[in-house]
Amino acid sequence: MRVLAALGLLVAALFAASLLVGPAAMGLGPSLRALVTGEGEAVVLVMREIRLPRALLGVMVGAALGLAGAAMQGFLRNPLAEPGLIGVSPAASLGAVLALQTGVAAVWAPALPLAALAGAAGAVALLFVLAGPRGGALTLILAGIALSALAGALVALVLNLSPNPFAAMEIVFWMMGSLADRSMLHVSLAAPFMLVGVVLLARTGRGLDALTLGEDAASALGVSLERLRLQVVIGVAALVGAATAVAGAVGFVGLVVPHLLRPLVGARPSALLPAAALGGAAVVLAADIATRLIAPDRDLKLGVLTAIVGAPFFFRLIWSMRRGME
Amino acid sequence: MTLLHLDGLTVRRGACPVVEGVSLSVAAGEFVGLIGPNGAGKTTLLRAALGLLAHGGRSSLSALPVAARARAAAFLPQAREVAWPVSVETLVALGRVPHGSGLSAADRMAVDRALRRMGLEAFRARDALGLSGGELARVLIARVLAQEAPLVLADEPVAGLDPASQIRTMQVFADLAREGRGVVASVHDLGLAARHCTRLVLMAKGRVVADGTPGAVLTAGNLATVFGIRAWLAEVEGGPVVVPLEVME
Questions:
Q1: Which one, of A17, A13, A98, lies nearest residue A54 by Cα?
Q2: DSSP string of A176-237, one letter each residue
Q3: What does the H/E/C string look like for A54-114?
Q4: Cβ contact A206–B73 (<8 Å)
């Protein structure tokens, strides 16, 4: 409980910081007053239309990735599992890329996140066709790898055939993942899917705990593995699909955050779920603030930053794991 | 009271039957030792009886809905899998999963009883992944005990334990049976099975070839035809003793 309270405070502080950091130089008092009261033309615009959606999306995307990562690791009983493993994020990217390529996204803004969500939904359907209704963890991973490869290849094909370098560049930049220039529309598009994902995954705690003992023992403890798999896959897909749809690919959060918080919650998968959600929100908020502070005028991409910080961190994890084994 | 009833239980892998036409009942108060050479179908029988494997024939347990089954029988798989470095207490408390979410006072008492029974109170806060193989085996048995189901199915519960732990574990199971519960455990150590079980079921090639008291099942003839061994059989301190001596050519 103390861990959750501390993480909650951290998220609240970073959320406030995210609201107050930006290129438009505005005082602390006027900013908050404008946000709450809606008085003061420009300040209200910046706060309500630019910074509030950005901070909200930071919390939502981070929490989605952290929660999905914790559920995925618990379900596959593997600390190296990550939410992208089932191929949903590459498929969502493919949907978004197609929207950019065809120009639909330029005509009608919601087309991009909607296409990404459609891509994610298609991936889940294909996943169940490939892995079957009651296949084990291994078939699920293999089906996910096959799907990721296919989606990756199709994205490359779109880039390959792109009519001009600017279109290609737009696609590449989108894929790097960012929370910049998002609106409340993105918030309201992602929110219902994420809510579904949270509700589904929140009910998996007991089953994931029982899975600590292996599939046979969990099943004998009264856990329906088929139902659990359905809940985890659809929950993760809803969260990751929605996160990718509004923010692009933000890597390493779903992998590293659950890993980092596991020792703090006694390694219990059910306890890790809420902790990883809060931890993910904190990391994405912090990374998004950092992109604004490090290079205010260069539009540093969020996904680039999380990967740059996340990968060495991952090296360290592997290093300490190796030392623990030797 | 019958805790488990199997009727013509059959499991096929492809066309080849791994367990064929097994019918047996286990009553409260029985500690049944499931014996037989490697590949006789002991593990498959236990898993199919629970409904973890698709099977032909009938099993009273696999016919139950999963939640009811978990309250009727506890299962100790052969593989000692623990995925996360949880504390011993947390691991044992997983036995309470079938009894609803959240640990009630009754759940805590069941966990305490199980830890005490396996002599693990001092290990309570230890990291389960930091334990030795034998210690972990005892913790996993405590998890099964914490489930407090009327029937315990255990797949090779004493494999890899030191002699004292083996005897203590067999005594715990025998005590459960005396308290009116039922235990079915596959055991490779014929000496332990003979001394502690109230009944032995001998399997060979997927079939039950002998079923009865240890004295009636562990005959020189059965040991020769099923295991291909010669053993020294005797009665000591009111119980049968089996010491395998040599492989028969």
A1: A17
A2: T---TT--HHHHHHHHHHHHHHHHHHHTTHHHHHHHTT-HHHHHHTT--HHHHHHHHHHHHH
A3: HHHHHHHHHHHHHHHHHHHHHHHCCCCCCHHHHCHHHHHHHHHHHHHHHCHHHHCCCHHHH
A4: no
- In chain A, domain spans: 2-325
User: For residue B72, which residues of chain A lie inside 8 Å, CB to CB?
Assistant: none
What's the rounded Cα separation, in Å, for the pair B132 and B123?
A: 12
Please tell me if residue B192 touches chain A, with a CB cutoff of 8 Å.
Answer: no
In angstroms, the separation between the Cα of residue B4 and the nearest Cα of chain A is: 15
Q: ipTM value of the model?
A: 0.91
- C-beta separation of A84 from A198 below 8 A: no
Which of A205, A217, A262 shows the shortest C-beta gap to B75? A217
pLDDT tens track for A23-70: 766 767 777 777 777 777 777 777 777 889 999 999 999 999 999 999
Fold for domain A2-325?
Answer: ABC transporter involved in vitamin B12 uptake, BtuC (1.10.3470)
How many Å lie between the alpha carbon of B38 and the closest alpha carbon of chain A? 20
Stated pTM of the model: 0.91
Residues B195-246 have pLDDT tens digits of 999 999 999 999 999 999 999 999 999 999 999 999 999 988 878 899 999 9
Does the distance separating the beta carbons of B87 and A210 come in below 8 Å?
no
- Interchain pair B67, A222: CB under 8 A: yes
Q: Could you write out the three-class secondary structure of B160-178? A: CCCHHHHHHHHHHHHHHHH
Q: Are B76 and B153 in contact (CB under 8 A)?
A: yes
Single out the residue of A61, A113, A124 nearest to residue A91, CA to CA: A124
pLDDT band at A135 (very low <50, low <70, confident <90, very high): low
